[in-house]
Amino acid sequence: MFDTGEIEKQITARLSEMAKEIVAIRRDLTDTTRADVITALEVVKSASAATQAVATADLHTSRRAERAAKGLPKRQWDTGVASEIGLARHDSANKGGRHLGFARVLVDEMPHTLARLACGDLSEWRATMIVRDTFGLSRDDRALVDSELCSDPATLMGKSDSQVSATARAAVVRIDAEALVRRASKAVGDRRVTSRPAPDTMAYLSALLPVKQAVCVHATLMRDAAAIVGAGDERTKSQIMADLLVERVTGLSTATAVPVTVNVVLSDEALLGTGSEPAEVEGYGPVPTDLVIRWLHDDDAKNELRRLYANPETGALTAMESKSRGFPTGILRMTRFRDKICRTPWCGAPIRHGDHVRSVANGGDTTFDNSAGLCEACNYAKEADGWTTTPDKNQSGELHSYRITTPTGHQHRSTAPPLPMPMPVRHHRIDISSTEHAVIDILWAA
Known about the structure:
Blueprint: H1 4-23, H2 31-69, H3 81-88, H4 93-109, H5 111-118, H6 124-133, H7 139-150, H8 161-187, E1 192-198, E2 202-208, H9 211-230, H10 237-250, E3 262-267, H11 268-271, E4 279-281, E5 285-287, H12 289-296, E6 302-310, E7 317-320, H13 331-339, E8 353-356, E9 371-374, H14 376-381, E10 388-391, E11 401-405, E12 411-415, E13 437-445
Antiparallel strand pairs: 1-2, 3-4, 3-13, 4-5, 6-7, 6-13, 8-9, 10-11, 11-12
Helix pairs in contact: 2-4, 2-5, 3-4, 4-5, 5-7, 6-8, 7-8, 9-10
């Protein structure tokens, strides 16, 4: 007889083999079979999502029970679970929290929706919409919507994403219209402004506002842009609206005189025009070096140079010039330049905390080698029961790395990204005292 551990190993091994079989499906099929394969794989994806949800909810229940048995305070029972799920799914802690919330609702409150997902009648996204649109309902009322929409497979058969969402919201209104009113009142507290990268060195600036405010802002920009177009301005209406937004938010007379400090890291070789290594804009990512050089010649900007020192073979950050006009120095600044974004694998969130890889309580030093840039969620997760982080013994010039061990014993390695590669060492009459060469950090502000 197999013991429990052996059976569990067989389960994961079988899933791995199934994945290999799916990838190895032959390509010389008839079109009819290809269509059947597409449909069958959609069912497999839905069934996988349902099984993932059950495993996620069970992991959460088990982790809470384990910590309760240890006598830990209730506020610590959930700490780090979302990050653990995110790592298991190769996702961020934020998305791990969403996966967890989705799983708990399906398993604990919406068994019919889970069943439709498991048999392939419902996609993961449509199940997510039903969970989202029933947010705010009591457990009993949510169960009513679950039964109304998903107890009979025919109810949602053939419906589009928007139709599924509309059907769910209509059921919520019939069962508890006040729930939508409560959600609307709560949503006002979620107003925010965010930005994210867009193609071609552009970025999206998004504002989540109450509808009357959003409509008012947009209508005002449209009205004033139309007046400027009518006066003969050569810009398009959309361009003028974008420029007006920047000018009114920043208080500047032109949209190009941006007063916010932006950090750009590029290699000395690229700056001097002999290399093709892209520059790196903090909070955005790679941009063409030619574009940065154009920014340097912008009359509206005040330019400032700070030297960073990188290993010419690996791109590892090794030192930073200590003097700069108007900006603080120290380990945190070097850590931010080195790590760029949260160091937890698959996270990608902005750095909010400079953290000790090995905690001070466990003998960790406050040094550059023992530092890591993390988002808030990942920083709090690593302090949870059962988590450990261990610095690697990096050799001089190696990229900084450390290991994360979750409560299940799974290990994940975090390695800092390389900086733009500096010029190779040239053996002329110059006395080179080390193998490190400069990388230029350009800061500009009005």
